[in-house]
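Input.
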Amino acid sequence: MSTTIAFDVYGTLIDTHGIVSELQIMVGDIATTFSHTWREKQLEYSFRRGLMKKYETFAVCTSNALDYTCASYDIDLTEEQKNNLLLSYQSLPAFKDAEESLSKLKSNNCRLFAFSNGTTNAVDTLLVKANIRDYFHGVVSVGDLKSFKPNPAVYEYFLKVADTNKNNTWLISSNSFDVIGAISAGIRAVWVKRSEKAVFDPWGIEPTITVNDLNGLYAIIN
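Output.
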């Protein structure tokens, strides 16, 4: 049986801070800090909605997080500016190492899936615009369960949809909560430490493997 690989999308394949240049026009020198707060709040809102069972799509979490970030930094963006930023979020760029790594893994008969908090349509659109959609066997959205990672149910759902088993599956993610979620569900997981400053959550649960970028995956999973 071919190895099945579940790729997290936002932050792993797609650069969520690829919007900084556009933010600089709107918010100036705090663009990078603004972008990080927006991303952190986006994830927090998905966690909270999952726990509360008050599901809204990841796009709603993203929009709510943008409103929060504007209020936090006392930035008065117009509705048109906010809508433009949210539209730009649908066409964020892939990291430079994404296409080459995906190509190598697919050429070795690995079954690649995009596994995301985003809806199927949103992720499909994002991957198409980033020119990497064709590398994937399919897209698995946790939104089908009206929940978010790292709910254990979403990892079981992935195995079911991808028609695979735990022993034959890897998760690839730059998000430590996602890696911990997968390992807790019995799935091997690679943490992509994209920044030297990145800290893995100290929960006593370690990644199966840690890499600095996606280029190292082929030597590990082939």
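The longest strand covers residues 111-116.
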